[in-house]
Design a protein that fits this description.
six-stranded mixed β-sheet, Rossmann fold, globular, binds adenosine-5'-triphosphate
Length: 251
């Protein structure tokens, strides 16, 4: 059996006296799509920010391909092969679509030729034809769904081994959410990258996930395959009815 590509051990993350993660452990195997679901404030974003080096853990360890990356700066983590597609997309609004994609390949541009990078750009345009159409348009003038596609495509430009997506559905209309999830499904099926997906739309995330973890107030509450958790009474209770987020799909 292969070794995990990402292994989180007893991670504790604090903002002053607020504990966002209270000893979380999880693993992602190569080629898997693992979802991290949980309600507002359960610690999902803090987890991704700590993995990508934007925040420092209070204690615990983060291993990427067996090597500790705890406390490593963000540029080093990116260079090792982890791409973080942040909550709220954060595209470079005043840059063109094409320039946003080139910025995603910035660390590669030191070692690789323009030809190699333009190969990846072509692959991005094949996956997201709308971005090709709009390649010269300023990113800030794209619709929310198009900006989300650009954020994913930009992250893929670094040719990551691990792609982390934070709330890709946020602020999008249900029909666009369908499109974003079909892209995530295609990413999973193509095995282009291992994916760690953070989502509030629990049912949608569980439908595309190989495995998932349910985070609750900084603790892992449940874990299992996507289909096991879809049918789990606690998950159904927590995410059905009044608490079901807008745009979620209960199968
Ligand atoms: P959401 O879906 O709302 O983004 P989340 O599951 O991603 O929630 P986090 O954003 O990681 O959760 O927040 C976890 C906890 O840490 C919450 O109690 C939150 O209030 C707290 N927190 C997050 N960011 C900060 C900050 N900059 N300063 C202080 N506390 C913070």
């Amino acid at each position: 059996m292969s070794a995990p590509i990402l292994s989180i051990k007893n991670l504790i993350v604090r903002y002053g006296s607020i504990e966002a993660l209270s000893g979380v452990s999880l693993e992602v195997m190569p080629g898997e799509l693992v979802a991290l679901i949980g309600s507002n404030g359960s610690g999902k974003t803090s987890m991704l920010k700590t993995i990508s080096g934007q925040m420092k853990a209070f204690s615990g360890d983060i291993l990427f391909s067996g090597q500790s990356i705890s406390g490593a700066p963000a540029h080093k983590v990116t260079g090792l092969g982890i791409a973080h597609c942040p909550e709220g997309r954060k595209v470079f609004a005043t840059q063109s679509v094409e320039d946003n994609l080139l910025l995603g390949a910035f660390l590669r541009s030191r070692k690789e030729t323009r030809k190699e990078i333009s190969f990846e750009m072509d692959a991005a345009f094949e996956m997201f034809p709308i971005l090709k159409e709009r390649r010269h348009q300023l990113a800030g003038t794209l619709s929310g769904g198009q900006q989300q596609m650009l954020a994913i495509a930009r992250a893929l430009m670094s040719k990551p081994q691990l792609l982390m997506l934070d709330e890709p559905s946020m602020g999008l209309a249900p029909i666009i959410i369908d499109e974003v999830f079909s892209i995530i499904q295609r990413l999973r099926d193509s095995k282009k990258a291992t994916v760690l997906l953070v989502e509030q739309l629990a049912f949608r995330a569980l439908q595309v996930a190989d495995r998932a973890y349910v985070l609750e107030q900084g603790h892992i509450r449940l874990t299992g395959t996507g289909s096991e958790l879809l049918g789990h009474p606690e998950v159904r209770k927590a995410y059905l009815g009044n608490r079901a987020a807008k745009g979620d799909k209960n199968p």
